[in-house]
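Case study.
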Amino acid sequence: MDPVRTPGVDDHDTAEVHLVARGIATAVAPESGLTEVQADLLEAIASALTGVSVDYRALEPLGPDELADVLAGRDLGYRQRVVHHMVLGELVLRPIPVVVAHRVAKYAEAMGVKDDFVRVARRFAQGARGLAWKDLQRNGFVEHVQEANEGDLESRSAADRGAPAPFAPAEVDPELAARWTAFEDLAEDSLGRLVWEMYDGRGFALPGTPGGAPAYLAQHDFVHVIADYGTNLKGELEVFAFIGRADPDPKGFAWLATLTSLFETGYIATTGFFDRDLRERVVQAPGMHLRVADAIRRGKVVCENYGVDLFEVDYYELAGRPVAELREMLRVPPKGPACVDAGSVGLFALEGMSETQQRAIAQRQRGAT
Amino acid sequence: MNRNFTQTIAVQCDDPAPIIELLEQWDIDQASADIMGYMGVRLLADRDNPGQYLIVADFGVVDPEVSAADEAARNNERPETQASAARMREHVNGEPEWRHYDELYRTDF
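After joint prediction, the assembly is written out as follows.
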């Protein structure tokens, strides 16, 4: 990959990339060595973000203090992202050995990074999955998402405070439903029309109608359209990896941590909007390491050039505008060729839909003939 | 070997609701606090003896050098633990009965 021509690929010192890779690999390796999933994923991320190819299976160890020295000139945000790659490397392990989770904490400490996700991974390793999910919700989502509603949060009961409102079951909202229904009349290339087609074709209930997604969660469906990701589990992992990295607040990593824990390891049983599904482990599925890495790269470009949490964008205001124009506005780069070759299809490709969604499409087509 | 440790607290009370509220708040507080051995808690009602309840608190290893039992001992010494225990005493009849167990087997995840 040519770092000069590929958006999101910074010009990196090759030696530094290798040193960081050595540190990450040493931190997350179980006693028996890096697993295939870990090596593939970390390699793909390093390559996608730096353009430097690193063989994670053949790296010499690098201790926490040495890694901290390597990154001493980097700012806290950069070091925190490195720690998140370590945590992701942990989260694909099942079980996460306590010694690995403890080691990652030591690396983070040496780098001067105090990060909630390091603690979440330690809780998974410990077996405290209930507490880990509370931790992830509280520190990954609630404080991040609900800052504007702090008063409401304080007035809720102890039990309710454990479950953030964005993930609460949706309520019927005729006004919201009317806004979504009106998207049907917009121009064919508009964001609103395309998100409406996505819902209509797949048989999804519109937000605001009975069974529809909560308004907050429905925000990510606009991103499916803009970033052109499918809606099966693999597409969801891509879209949330993208959204999480596009968020200027590092707490956006909570999305990827959550989806990985739902669809790869099963550490989380349900979020309210997604339930655990381990029929096909999504991260270790063929090509997914490349697709996730590319989604992180694309998200990084959006983060650096647009700099707004994509859950906070007023898509209703933008609904009438062409998607191509919005991609330009948000600075969303195209998918990388390796990602496309690995099977990342567009929003309306059948391969990017779940079996249920494909059946809905087929039923709709039969009805039309 | 990462052997878990369990502490049980047998209590008698007329209404378990305040205890549930205390435990919920405890979990919320722990979720945002620095990592320690506490894993989670269950409150069980004795079907044969109405008014009898058992609190089951689990502790696990978070530092390979520190056992779960030691983590629990450290937890007991924390001021917030003492405060929570004092608040619980306000809602129970008589003195709670504490027991301590090493976990020998658990259906694994």
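Observations recorded in class. The first helix of chain A runs from residue 14 to 28. Chain A touches chain B through 26 residues (CB under 8 Å). We will return to this complex in the next lecture.
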